[in-house]
Amino acid sequence: MQVLSRCKYPSIDVDYQSRCRIQACQVTHYQFVIQPLQKSILTRKAARARGRAASEKLADGARLYDLSRAVLIHSIIGQHPDWSEMQVREELKRRRNATRQVHEKEIYVNVSTDEFA
Predict the structure, then answer these.
(1) Which of 33, 45, 82, 100 is the most exposed place for a label (fewest CB within 10 A)?
(2) What are the angstrom distances between the C-alpha of 42 and each of 36, 46, 82?
(3) Full-prediction pTM beyond 0.85?
(4) What is the pLDDT of residues 26-78, one digit of tens each?
(5) What is the pLDDT of residues 88-110, one digit of tens each?
(6) 106 vs 93: CA distance, rounded Å
(7) What is the dihedral of CA 100, 103, 106, 107, to 10 degrees?
(8) Residues 106 and 68 in one domain
(9) By C-alpha distance, which of 75, 108, 104 is closest to 91?
(10) What's the domain range around 26?
């Protein structure tokens, strides 16, 4: 057995073939265990969503918005416990605007009237 990498501890030496076997196992595990699990979860979520009324979906959206806002506020307070409520609100507004700019980047394009004349 040819050792390609030497560890500080001789009993932990790993040769190239062992590394390849580990990588192959990881790929196989992903391919045969994780991917099917992901697909089944997504399928069940989609089926559950199709069975719900539009009003329930809208209510869920509002609840998710409130939840994400509360999590963000608590995160800001955790990072800056000495800040006042006004400072926390300003930081909340700044972060939400930054997130919005990232999500809306290149969605809306300024159009001048010269291009369509």
Answers:
(1) 82
(2) 10, 6, 42
(3) no
(4) 667 677 778 888 888 889 988 888 888 989 989 999 999 999 999 999 999 99
(5) 999 999 999 988 888 787 666 66
(6) 21
(7) -90
(8) yes
(9) 75
(10) 1-51
